[in-house]
Design goal:
Layout: E1 5-10, E2 13-18, H1 29-44, E3 50-54, H2 66-71, H3 81-90, E4 96-100, E5 103-105, H4 107-110, E6 117-121, E7 125-127, H5 141-149, H6 151-160, E8 164-165, H7 166-172, E9 177-179, H8 181-196, H9 200-211, H10 214-233, H11 236-246
Parallel strand pairs: 2-3, 3-4, 4-6, 5-7, 6-9
Antiparallel strand pairs: 1-2, 7-8
C-alpha cells in the first residue's frame, strides 16, 4: 500500500491527503488506485457522510506523474487506475469537499469539477496544460469547463494551458472561497463537519438532483476523452513533451 496517499476517517469524514510533496504531489498509478479504493470504501460505509480531498499548503498536485505516463501509459479503460478514480469521483454520491493550495495542474484541477465545495488558498494556481503535453482534456473537462466559465475563457484555459489564480477561479465559480493557505485545510474540515451533521439521505438526494440528467453525459464525455487521451499518450507530440519535462528542457514541437 502506498504512503503517498493518506486516508483518515473520523467523525463521519474521510480525508484523503496527497503525501508526495517532494514530487509536487504528482499522481502515480498506485496513488490513483489508493484514492479510488478510498472513495469506494467511503461510499460503502454508512457512517461516512463526507469526503475531503486535500494537499499541502504549498502544493495541491502537479497532476499525473509524467514518468508513469512514459513507463506505463494506460492501455484500456478497464485496467486504468486513473479511469477508476475519475469514474469514482464523478459518480461519488456523498458530498466531496476540496482544499486547494499552490499549483493544481492537469487532473489536479479537473478533479475539482467533480467536487461539491472547493476552498482555495490565495496561492492556488489552477492549470490544464493538456495541449502543452500533446494531450487533450480529461475528466469531462471539455464539457464542464465551458459550462462553468463560458466558451472563450474555457478555450483560453484549455488551448493555452496557462495557470489562473485563486481570485480568477473564484470569479468563474470553480472555488467557493479564498483564504490564507494556512487556513484552507481547516476551513474545508469545518465545512465538512457541518455537512457530516446533516441527514445523509437528504445530502445524497440533493446532490443527485443537483447533478441532474447531465450525470450520464459526463460519463459519456469522459469515455470519449479517455479514448483520445490514451491514443495521444503514445503519439510523437506527447512523447516529446514527456522527454522534455524529464530532461528539464523546452519541448520542440516543430516536427509534430
Ligand atoms: N510528474 C513527475 N514528476 C514531477 C511532476 C509530474 N507531473 N511534477 C513535478 N515533478 C517532480 C520534478 O521532476 C522534480 O523532481 P526532481 O526533484 O527529482 O527533479 C520535483 O517534482 C519538483 O518539481 P519542480 O518542477 O522542480 O518544482 P517547481 O516548484 O519548480 O514547479 C510545478 C512545480 C508543479 C509548477 C512543476 O513541477 C510542473 O509544472 N510540473 C509538471 C506539471 C504537469 O505538466 N503535469 C501533468 C499534467 S497532465
Amino acid at each position: 500500500m502506498t504512503q503517498d496517499i493518506l486516508v483518515h476517517t473520523e467523525g463521519g469524514i474521510t480525508t484523503i491527503t496527497f503525501n508526495r510533496v517532494d514530487k509536487k504531489n504528482s499522481i502515480t498509478a498506485a496513488m490513483y488506485a489508493a484514492m479510488a479504493d478510498a472513495l469506494e470504501a467511503a461510499k460503502a460505509d454508512a457512517s461516512v457522510r463526507v469526503v475531503v480531498l486535500q494537499g499541502d499548503m504549498a502544493i495541491f498536485s502537479a497532476g499525473n506523474d509524467i514518468g508513469d505516463f512514459q513507463r506505463q501509459p494506460p492501455s484500456s479503460r478497464e485496467e486504468s487506475p486513473v479511469f477508476r478514480f475519475l469514474r469514482g469521483i464523478a459518480t461519488f454520491p456523498k458530498p466531496l469537499v476540496a482544499a486547494v493550495c499552490g499549483p493544481a495542474v492537469g487532473v489536479g484541477t479537473t478533479m475539482l469539477f467533480h467536487c461539491d465545495l472547493v476552498y482555495a488558498g490565495d496561492n492556488a494556481a489552477f492549470s490544464m496544460p493538456f495541449v502543452n503535453l500533446g494531450l487533450c482534456p480529461e475528466a469531462a473537462s471539455s464539457l464542464l469547463v465551458p459550462q462553468m466559465m463560458g466558451y472563450h475563457r474555457a478555450a483560453e484555459a484549455l488551448l493555452l494551458g496557462e495557470p489562473f489564480m485563486a481570485e480568477a477561479a473564484l470569479e468563474v465559480g470553480l472555488v467557493n472561497r479564498v483564504v490564507p493557505p494556512a487556513e484552507c485545510n481547516a476551513l474545508a474540515q469545518a465545512q465538512a463537519k457541518k455537512l457530516a451533521a446533516k441527514p445523509l439521505s437528504a445530502l445524497i438526494e440533493t446532490k443527485r438532483l443537483l447533478k441532474g440528467p447531465q450525470a450520464a453525459k459526463v460519463l459519456e464525455v469522459m469515455d470519449e476523452e479517455g479514448d483520445s487521451f490514451r491514443r495521444m499518450l503514445r503519439e510523437p507530440a506527447a512523447r516529446e513533451a514527456f522527454s522534455a519535462f524529464m530532461e528539464k528542457r523546452k519541448p520542440d514541437f516543430s516536427k509534430v
